[in-house]
């Protein structure tokens, strides 16, 4: 198969869909790999590094989109990219369609077969292609939040770890999945006072065991959210209902009960965000303020550490990517976990949560592939 990898064009996005090591494996499987010139610059991979493993180098993204039967990316396609996608082509990348009707229309109109990393599943109920970036974003969320808490950055002026004789900062983490667990590890490491809220009691039980009483856990009701958020210096939003738009757990009204200069880091922003007042921001302008509360809502947080993130992402995407390249659409019908990643195919929406969020007709993925 002709496998293409364009340079990412989202604001301050330095990751790349294929590392040279991954490109080498596609070549070893007999595929032709085409990389846009400069695509690997953010991870210190030169065109020569890709050429050395047998990839060809395209001067422009247009060449890649025109030639490739499968496009491997990181972020959801931007408008100039939708316009180049076509029926019969496989797009393998993050999509986050539920909160993004325009992109969804773009992909429907193109007829492309869109496999979204974030809805591919595994046998343990996890999301193996989301998990590595959630690990990165969870860890980064505490770094970003600690910085935003500095007075010069608009925050309260609290050091998360405190010092001897002065209390630590309070961190509330809403959602104790992959992001939440990694955020808790980092916040604890800095010496903060940490509470994790989740709707899953078994998840809370696991976290309680893991942290051996060093974090507080709370079942996530509106009352518990209010109580925790009102006393927090830093709140991290890490909730996910797979594929769906994130529920708004912290309302605009609640902001008035919070400490002035407290910081909200909405990691869940790529699915719409779990704070009512969130809107997506970029690494260039990551924060904004509403009612004295600092909001950090960068939708591609892992793009800030592309060397770590690209390698972690490729480790996870490579086996499924090779299956798609080797077998085409048959790889989807052969593997229910990869099939769960199919969000759009030939103009049909094949993910139920996305269809419901956007009021689109839902077509079962296996049925759509038969047509
Ligand atoms: N902004 C960024 O750059 C990035 C964003 N993300 C996003 O972070 C979010 C979280 O991802 P993961 O941790 O991997 O998901 P996950 O599925 O591992 O964890 C989500 C957790 O939310 C919990 N939850 C569901 N409803 C809840 C409620 N009402 N109250 C409290 N908890 C609730 C679930 O029980 C689960 O434990 C996703 O939207 C993901 O796309 C991930 C990576 C990068
Ligand atoms: C998961 C995601 O949206 C990201 O890594 O940017
Ligand atoms: Mg994102």
UniProtKB/TrEMBL annotation:
It is an enzyme of class 1 (oxidoreductase). It comes from the Bacteria. InterPro entries: Ala_DH (IPR008141), Ala_DH/PNT_CS2 (IPR008143), AlaDH/PNT_N (IPR007886), AlaDH/PNT_NAD(H)-bd (IPR007698), NAD(P)-bd_dom_sf (IPR036291). It catalyses: L-alanine + NAD(+) + H2O = pyruvate + NH4(+) + NADH + H(+). NAD(+) binds at residues 134, 198, 203, 220, 239-240, 267-270, 298-301. One of its GO terms (biological process) is L-alanine catabolic process. SUPFAM superfamilies: Formate/glycerate dehydrogenase catalytic domain-like, NAD(P)-binding Rossmann-fold domains. SMART domains: AlaDh_PNT_C, AlaDh_PNT_N. PROSITE patterns: ALADH_PNT_2. Its EC number is 1.4.1.1. One of its GO terms (cellular component) is plasma membrane. Belongs to the AlaDH/PNT family. This is Alanine dehydrogenase. It comes from Afifella marina DSM 2698. The lineage of its organism: Bacteria, Pseudomonadati, Pseudomonadota, Alphaproteobacteria, Hyphomicrobiales.
């Amino acid at each position: 198969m002709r496998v293409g990898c364009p340079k990412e064009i989202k604001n301050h996005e330095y990751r790349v869909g294929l590392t040279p090591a991954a490109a080498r494996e596609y070549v070893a499987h007999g595929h032709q790999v085409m990389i846009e010139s400069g695509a690997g610059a953010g991870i210190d991979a030169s065109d020569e590094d890709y050429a050395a493993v047998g990839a060809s180098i395209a001067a422009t993204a247009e060449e890649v989109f025109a030639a490739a039967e499968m496009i491997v990316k990181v972020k959801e396609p931007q408008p100039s990219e939708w316009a180049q996608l076509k029926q019969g082509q496989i797009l393998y990348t993050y999509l986050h369609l539920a909160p993004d009707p325009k992109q969804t229309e773009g992909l429907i109109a193109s007829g492309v077969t869109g496999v979204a990393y974030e809805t591919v599943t595994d046998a343990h109920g996890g999301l193996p292609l989301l998990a590595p970036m959630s690990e990165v974003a969870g860890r980064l969320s505490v770094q970003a939040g600690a910085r935003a808490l500095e007075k010069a950055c608009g925050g309260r002026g609290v050091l998360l770890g405190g010092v001897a004789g002065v209390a630590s900062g309070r961190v509330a983490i809403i959602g104790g999945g992959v992001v939440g667990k990694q955020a808790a590890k980092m916040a604890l490491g800095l010496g903060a006072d940490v509470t994790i809220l989740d709707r899953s009691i078994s998840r809370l039980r696991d976290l309680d065991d893991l942290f051996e009483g060093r974090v507080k856990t709370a079942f996530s009701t509106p009352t518990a959210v209010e109580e925790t958020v009102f006393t927090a210096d830093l709140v991290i939003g890490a909730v996910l209902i797979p594929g769906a738009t994130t529920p708004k757990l912290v309302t605009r009204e609640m902001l008035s009960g919070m400490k002035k200069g407290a910081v909200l880091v909405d990691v869940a922003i790529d699915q719409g965000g779990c704070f009512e007042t969130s809107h997506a921001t970029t690494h260039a302008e990551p924060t904004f303020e509403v009612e004295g509360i600092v909001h950090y809502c960068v939708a591609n947080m892992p793009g800030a550490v592309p060397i770590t993130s690209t390698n972690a992402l490729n480790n996870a995407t490579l086996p499924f990517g090779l299956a798609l390249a080797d077998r085409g659409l048959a790889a989807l019908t052969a593997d229910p976990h990869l099939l769960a990643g199919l969000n759009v195919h030939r103009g049909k929406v094949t993910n139920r949560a996305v269809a419901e969020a956007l009021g689109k007709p839902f077509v079962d993925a296996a049925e759509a592939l038969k047509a």
